[in-house]
Specification:
By secondary structure, this protein is α+β, with helices and mostly antiparallel strands. Helix content is 33%, strand content 24%. Strand 2 and strand 3 form a beta hairpin. Helix 2 packs across helix 4, helix 6 crosses helix 7 and helix 10 packs across helix 12. 47% of the residues are buried.
């Protein structure tokens, strides 16, 4: 059996998870990206690397910036606005009562020296590292199905929680979807887990009745069968949640942020980093390349790897893997990608328009598989590379 036959004929189960905007790690991500957007609003070329820690009624900010002092001084108000928007007004984590420690300071001169250049085209990468992008034809948004449906369940559920249509459920939640695959396509839901914070006294049967329509709506018709298993708040109750129940840190949900485990991850997190950090910008570019390969029907699935060295503009490598589904040689595809896009740090930022305050929205429900937006948000989701 050749590689293509193996890829197309295998049967297996695959699982991905998502978390809500009130999950403690996602609270941290949103704060870091809200601060990033504030710096970029003041100066589109600000240098920002901000980390956030959240725990019971406490937020610590740390990191390095070369940007507006006004934003640094206004950080407390930005933090409280994010926490309030998420919906935290609980005894253990309340937007009005949280203690905030701000340890943001100036960027290292050594890092600045490695990145800055006399010309934009010569600008080096902000750090060394390898970044992966992935796309597949399992869903309309060219994302792994188990992750996409995990995101969709929570995204639509929390839309109604946040607009007040659903009462008694809290901001913290997680979902997990296990799908049965035949060949390279999902065919059924094997099991679904959903844990969601709730007020005391709410019956678990009522919670299940509330969330089931969102589960059913998120999955394709026919995926839920008589054999599908459901685990709704499997511990029995989930009253204490969010940062009061578990500390949260920026960048701790990188698999949720990317491909749900269906593709490699280079290790670098995204939130709180300006686009000179190739951890973020090159990962977006790699997704853009992979998605355009699949959208152009050059493959059913595609993994892209980019590698950079700090202070060096040209990527060290571009790797293409079409998992035995390519209609052209992978070397030929790689050449097409390099011809179509300037992959220097400056070039990919200019191509995707990344010097904009478009990042807080990425901090929930995945950085990929989203709709490109008129203001430049999710520009890496466009499929226009081979139209140019």
């Amino acid at each position: 059996m050749n590689n293509t036959d193996f890829y197309q004929n295998r049967e297996f189960l695959f699982t991905s998870e998502s978390v809500s905007e009130g999950h403690p790690d996602k609270v941290a991500d949103q704060i870091s990206d809200a601060l990033l957007d504030a710096y970029l609003t003041e100066n589109p070329y600000a240098r920002v690397a901000v980390e956030t820690l959240v725990t019971t009624n406490h937020v610590t900010l740390a990191g390095e910036v070369r940007g507006s002092d006004k934003v640094t001084q206004n950080a407390d108000a930005i933090v409280r606005d994010v926490v309030k928007r998420i919906g935290y007004a609980q005894k253990g984590f309340h937007h009005q009562h949280i203690e905030i420690i701000n340890k943001i300071h100036g960027q290292s001169a050594d890092i600045a020296m490695g990145v800055d250049a006399k010309t934009n085209q010569a600008e080096g990468a902000g750090d060394q590292g390898l970044m992966f992008g992935y796309a597949c034809n399992e869903t309309d948004v060219l994302m792994p199905a188990s992750l996409h449906y995990s995101h969709e369940i929570l995204r639509h559920l929390f839309k109604d929680i946040n607009n007040g249509s659903i009462k008694g459920l809290g901001p913290d939640a997680k979902t997990q979807v296990t799908l049965a695959y035949c060949g390279n396509q999902p065919v059924a839901a094997h099991s679904i887990v959903l844990s969601i914070q709730h007020e005391a006294g709410i019956n678990q049967a009522d919670i299940q009745k509330t969330v089931m329509p969102y589960i059913e709506a998120a999955l394709p018709k026919g995926f839920i069968t008589k054999d599908t298993e459901f685990f709704i708040n499997p511990t029995g109750q989930f009253i204490i949640g969010g940062p009061d129940g578990d500390a949260g840190l920026t960048g701790r949900k990188i698999v949720v942020d990317t491909y749900g485990g269906a593709a490699p991850h280079g290790g670098g997190a995204f939130s709180g980093k300006d686009p000179t950090k190739v951890d973020r910008s090159a990962a977006y570019a790699a997704r853009y390349l992979a998605k355009n390969v699949v959208a152009a029907k050059l493959a059913d699935a595609c993994t892209i790897q980019l590698a950079y060295a700090i202070g060096v503009a040209k990527p060290l490598s571009l790797y293409v893997n079409t998992h035995g589904t390519g209609t052209e040689n992978e070397y030929v595809i790689a050449q097409k990608l390099q011809d179509a896009m300037d992959l220097t740090p400056w070039g990919l930022r200019e191509h995707l328009g990344l010097h904009k305050p478009i990042y807080e929205r990425t901090a929930t429900y995945g950085h990929f598989g989203r709709e490109p937006q008129p203001d430049g948000g999710f520009s890496w989701e466009k499929t226009d590379l081979f139209d140019k």
